[in-house]
């Protein structure tokens, strides 16, 4: 690691499956670390014990690995700052909470959710931003003991100093300035004893040596609170990069509601991780290259200075574009493995390879291969409505001529088509389209010649004769 190496982290809460918004944060953080020869840490923020599950944690590892990310430190790989699950860091939190206590920067708060709610409503009604009104700030030691002896549960609040300015330079948004008078005392330990996000998240970043916190800009207003805590503990403060939230096509920030935009769901639908990466790296970050980025090209292209402020929108059409690119960039072996489930079993190599070569640029998802398997290796071809129309428009004589020319073999398809053109007087699309329609059942698809060399002559004959029949009704 050099002086310019960045230590970044991804800090998900295992309360659901990863969606594209989290995945984008993970990818950008990963690229920032890898680009600078730094370290990338995975930390599991599972202090909310009721909602965090092991199953979601395992799913997180799987989904991140599927996306092509790896990490230098994390719950599953260990590291110098273990443990990496917040549930296991209770002693560490206790140690630092005591330091805040000793500095008289904390106090127990006995306010119930109902009381806080009333205070909040009152402030909103008065046109003020809601913040903790300080009800328990100045309780005497006697009042505190009395309430504890009555069995009242207490949360722990951080005492925000008054009249101070917290400033930081956000990598994306530039200089930020917050007045502590606008920040109410906030909870750092909940009534159930678990530490709250503001505290454990900031503390862990600092203790783990994180130098750049890259996260969604919904966290921007949390940052001054976190800086206050770190300053109070004389701990190093990382740099922050708050990236614009990722929106769904409906314009709402991506959340668990957008189930279909879960990484898992995309994977099950046949999306390739490299396609997802190429789309994600362009959301909230502008690339110099418009074209395909493989792993090393993506690292080269990535630049923190090109993280954008405008809300980025996930786009189906863009993802599909990158999916096609990703499929086209698979090696022959990868393509063959990817489509294996759709291919006829026991197919001879001599047929398999030319078949894959013929169809590969028309396959965006493995399931797409099935259609071309039917066209090439199947019988009983069905024509879609466009194909039927093209066949009818060509007329029966066209197919009679085509059949007699192709009866001599389809090996030299170009020559055969030329002859069909000469005998029928058709040219251009009027010549190619009906042939394609009759022989493949659709009006678009891979180049015809390589497909036809794989279709048995008898099947070609049968298709042309069916087309002739269809064209004569
Ligand atoms: N656990 C937090 C979240 O998932 C982490 C936020 C952060 O990156 O600081 O929102």
Task: Write a compact overview of the structure shown.
The chain is mainly α and 473 residues long. Helices cover 45% and strands 10% of the residues.
Question: Which small compounds were modeled alongside the protein?
Answer: glutamic acid
Would you state the CATH class of the largest domain?
A: Alpha Beta
Proportion of residues in β-strands: 5-15%
Number of helices: 20
How would you name the CATH homologous superfamily of the largest domain?
A: HUPs
Largest sheet: 3 strands, antiparallel
Report how far apart the termini are. 76 Å
- CATH fold name of the largest domain, please? Rossmann fold
- Per DSSP E runs of 2 or more residues, the count of β-strands stands at 11
